Amino acid sequence: MKEEDNQGEMELRRYRRIAGWTIGAVIFLVLVGGIVRSTGSGLGCPDWPKCFGKWVPPTDVSQLPSDYKTRFEIAGKEIADFDPFKTWVEYLNRLVGVLIGFFAILTAWFSLPLRHTQKRVTQLSVLTLLMVIVQGGIGAKVVSSHLETWMVTIHMVIAMVIVMMLITAYLLSHRSQIESWATALSSLKPQVWWLGIGVAAVTLIQIVLGTQVREEVDIVAEALGEESRSVWTESLGTVYLIHRTFYYLVVVGILGWMFQLKGAIAAVPMIKKLAVAMLGCVLLEIIFGLCMHHFGILPVLQPLHLLFATVLFAIEYSLLGALWIARKK
Predict the structure, then answer these.
(1) What is d(CA 211, CA 32) in angstroms, rounded to the nearest whole number?
(2) Domain range for residue 67?
(3) Looking at the 3D structure of the chain, how many domains does it have?
(4) Measured between alpha carbons, how far is 177 from 195 in angstroms, rounded to an integer?
(5) pTM for this prediction
(6) Are residues 184 and 128 in the same domain?
(7) 18 and 52, same domain (yes or no)
(8) Packing angle between helix 238-260 and helix 190-224, nearest 10 degrees?
C-alpha cells in the first residue's frame, strides 16, 4: 500500500510540474502574440500552416516568386511588401503555438494515470488539449480573415478559457492542500466569493476591450502616420474611453476584495502571496497604461500591458478557484 501511495504521489507531482509549465507557456504565448500585434506582424506569414508556402520562411524577397503579392493574397486583398522581420516574428509566434501543443499533449498524457483518483483533472486536461487544437484552427482563420476584429477577439477569449481550464485542473491536483485551509477560511462571508467573481469578470472584459482598442490603434496609426503618434490616443473612440474607465473598476474591486480577504491573507501564506502578486500586477498595469496614454502608445509597452493583464486575471482566477475548493470542503 505504501509503495502504491508513493507511486501515486510521484504521478501527481509529475502532472503538476507539466501542467504548471503549460500554464506558463500559454501566458508566454499571449506575450508573443502581443509583440506580433504591436509590430504589425500579424500578416507576416500570409498562409497557414506554412509561411509563403515554405516550412522555413524566406529571409529575402529574392526567395519569393515575382507575383508573390497576388499569389499569397488574403481575403482577396493583395499583401504588403515582404518584410523579413515581420515574417519571422509571426513565424516564431506559430512555433511557440506548436510548443504549447506538445505541452498540452504531455499534460493530457500525464493526467491519464490520475483518472481513477483525480477524474476531473484528467477530464479537464484532455479537454484542454482539444481546445488547444481548436485554437490552432482559429489562428488559421485569423490570418485568412485578414485579421478580422471579431476573429482576433475570439482568439484571445479562447486563450483565456484555456488558461482557466489549466488552472482549474492544476488547483484540483492540489485539492488536499487547499482543503486544509477550510478552517482558516470558515469566517469568510459569501460576498467575498461574489466580489471575487465580479473582479475577475471585469478584468476579463477589460482584456477583451483591450483587443478592440488594439484594432482602433491600427486604424488610427494608418490614418495619421507614425509621426503623429503623440496624438493617437486623442483620436481613439468610445471603446478606449470604456477601457480606461474599466481600470477604475478593476482597481477599486481588487482593493475591496483584498480588504474582505484580510483575515484569510493573514492566516494562509499562499493567499498572501497571491494577493501581493495581484496588487503588483495592478500597479504595473496602471504604470503601463499611463505611459501609453501620455507617450503615444509606445510599442514596447503594448505586449507588456497585455501580458500583465493576463497574469492578473490568472492570479484572480487562481485565488477564486482555491477559495471555491476550500469553501466546498
Answers:
(1) 14
(2) 1-169
(3) 2
(4) 24
(5) 0.89
(6) no
(7) yes
(8) 150
